[in-house]
Design goal:
- By secondary structure, the protein is α/β, with parallel strands linked by helices.
- It is built from 14 helices and 24 strands.
- Helices cover about 30% and strands about 25% of the residues.
- Helix 4 packs parallel to helix 5 (about 150-160) and helix 8 (about 240-260) packs parallel to helix 9.
- The structure holds pyridoxal-5'-phosphate (PLP).
- Pyridoxal-5'-phosphate binds near residues 99, 146, 270, 273 and 312.
- Its EC number is 4.1.1.19.
Length: about 475
């Protein structure tokens, strides 16, 4: 119970200033507003669950579908403006890399605004079929198929093509994949994935010699038309010159292959775009990137290609946030308190403990009192279930000294965390998932909410075989 929490204000903890707010966040009457949303109100607003009116269950996952539409429209607008400014003569196709967040609400929203779809496994093909059945796309929508095409996945793609998905474009990662599509005899536009420069050992794609062999093999197969050079950029676009250098290397590879296969006319960047509000200037980056492509193609004497971006993180990272209640406090051995949340940080944010990735973490209420340095801990008994995580090697957070009814928000966590941490099923220390609140606008632009309730014991225990 909240009343049983030790009063940290009573302890001689040194006070600290309130944390600085990134753009898009504001405080009013002691509460945090995020892009105009009163965040605390999301946990207070009654919802219908199991036929009764209740409060949303925390940890509460909140999706803002409008952010997905805005991000999709913004990148298209950035390309359109840069195309005019630098005189880029070709088109751009923006695909959603569903691996970043394959939830139905996200996929539906992005398909309905016209995104192409990038899939990576056999079950992802089932998502395409579901989307078709629901009317989110038709059979002319470009579908880019990456991922290792083991037989069940290759078969699912071949069936999709046989069922009339005419713009299904498999991208072969090796010669074996090419042969399984060669044998099937169905007509496809296809891509080849090149091995790109990488700071880590890279297991994807083919080297220049294998690409050339693949292009020759494809030239002998009239039903497979090579159009696409896939060059997954492994350096984030936010890294300026290093990104442009990686891109130049890939463009030289494109040009070399074009000389053997002039049917090539698409250059696919893969992913690598940072989140929309991560601080990168997308307008500058796009102008630079188009300029680089035009310059390298002119130097190499090859036509400028159409472009494909398969973007995951950029489209979805800022559409979601997660809200936790502080249910307990503990003083750490170094005198810094832990605020214990009603869920597991490890389960919800695997990139934080596994990779040391930082999220925007802010208190949602109690801004009108004093602040202290504190760390967050999950409710599990796992040593690593803390934030900042050990890999982050960061200072404690600045949090309100008053922990009564305190709610903590992890913002911009809509990319990858959901499926890396797993949805439903069983989680660490058998802590249940909370509810999911989906924010939409109705036909008149007024806010509309839908709510999926949290996990109950039979659902979790059932997943573990307790019948
Ligand atoms: C082939 C391919 N395309 C696109 C993406 C999406 O990357 P990002 O989330 O950086 O946009 C990935 C991510 O792993 C990928 O493997």
């Amino acid at each position: 119970m909240m009343s049983a929490l030790p009063r940290l204000e009573a302890l001689p903890l040194p006070l600290t200033p309130a944390p600085a707010l990134p753009a898009g966040y504001e405080i009013a009457q002691g509460r945090l507003f995020y892009r105009g949303l009163d965040v605390l109100a999301l946990t207070e607003r009654p919802v219908f669950a199991n036929g009764r009116l209740t409060r949303p269950a925390t940890p509460l996952y909140v999706r803002r579908l409008s952010a997905l539409r805005e991000n999709y429209a913004y990148l298209n607008a950035v390309f359109a403006a840069a195309k005019v400014q630098v005189g880029y003569p070709r088109h751009m196709l923006l695909a959603y890399a569903s691996k970043a967040n394959p939830s139905a609400a996200v996929v539906k929203t992005l398909l309905e605004v016209g995104a192409a779809y990038e899939c990576s496994s056999a079950f992802d093909v089932d998502v395409v079929r579901h989307a078709y059945a629901q009317g989110w796309l038709d059979r002319t929508r470009p579908i880019l198929a990456n991922g290792f095409k083991i037989p069940p996945y290759a078969d699912a793609l071949l069936r999709l093509r046989a069922d009339g998905f005419q713009n299904l474009l498999p991208i072969f990662d090796d010669l074996e994949e090419l042969e399984s599509f060669a044998a099937a005899g169905l007509p496809f536009e296809v891509g080849l994935r090149a091995r790109t420069l990488s700071e880590q050992p890279n297991r994807f794609g083919m080297d220049a010699e294998t690409l050339r062999y693949a292009a020759e093999r494809l030239a002998a197969l009239p039903h497979l038309r090579l159009t696409t050079y896939h060059a997954m950029q492994t350096v984030s676009a936010a890294r300026g010159l290093s990104y442009q250098n990686g891109l130049i290397h890939s463009l030289r590879g494109y040009a070399a292959l074009w000389r053997h296969a002039p049917t090539l006319h698409r250059f696919n960047f893969g992913g690598g775009l940072p989140a929309r509000h991560s601080g990168m200037n997308f307008e500058v980056w796009m102008r630079q990137t188009l300029g680089t492509i035009m310059a390298v193609c002119a130097e190499e004497g090859v036509p400028v290609p159409d472009l494909i971006f398969e973007t995951g993180r950029y489209l979805v990272q800022d559409h979601a946030l997660k809200l936790f209640k502080v249910v307990k406090t503990r003083l750490g051995a170094d005198g810094v308190p832990y605020y214990i949340l009603d869920g597991s940080i490890m389960s919800h944010f695997p990139d934080a403990w596994a990779l040391g990735e930082a999220f925007t973490v802010l208190p949602v209420n109690n801004w009108d009192g004093a602040f202290v340095q504190a760390r967050l801990a999950g409710l599990t008994c796992d040593h690593d279930d803390v934030y900042p995580t050990r890999r982050m090697n960061a200072e404690p957070l600045q949090l309100p000294a008053n922990t009564d009814s305190l709610v903590i928000g992890f913002f911009e966590c809509g990319a990858y965390q959901e499926t890396l941490g797993g949805r439903r099923g069983a989680h660490h220390c058998l802590l249940p998932e909370g509810g999911e609140l989906i924010l939409e606008a109705n036909a008149h632009g007024a806010p509309a909410f839908s709510y999926l309730d949290g996990q109950d014991a039979p659902a979790m225990l059932g997943a573990l075989g307790y019948g």
